[in-house]
Predict the structure.
Amino acid sequence: MKYFSALFFACTLLLLSGCSTTNKDIQITAEHEPSSVFSEYKSYDWLGSAAILNDPENVWESVGVDVAGDIKYLIDRELRKRQLFKTSGRPDLAVSFFVGVNMDNQELKIDEETKIELKKTIPKAGLVVVLSEVTSGKVVWIGVATGDVQKNRTPELVRERLDFAVTEMFKQLPN
């Protein structure tokens, strides 16, 4: 559980896919509670979501996508594929996600001409999806997607990258 707490904290600081023409910069990881039997879970309900934007220079530009709504739709789709269905009754799992963008992310990059390492601002984004067992309250699965935020994003590209991130993340959900 200590690992999940540390991973959750680190990932909320990292932050989600902004968009480029490919998905190769998107990194996906997932961890699950080894004692959980995922085939026994049949239902879920939404616990909540949160978003964080770190943009001290006010350079973030919205592209008109309801990111939270799209993520929720994609997660619902992936859970249904695994025969988990939303219920308003007493669910087996509670689902939550956290998304954030850090427009002030700093990384070291090597200048091609001088071969000197330089500190550059490279905006990053991240998505964390958490599945918790309702009866015990323990986190049974956590998926994380991180990627670069590109300057030339379109609504179609944002949706494509979100779809890729959520789909790949849920491929790591045990059966």
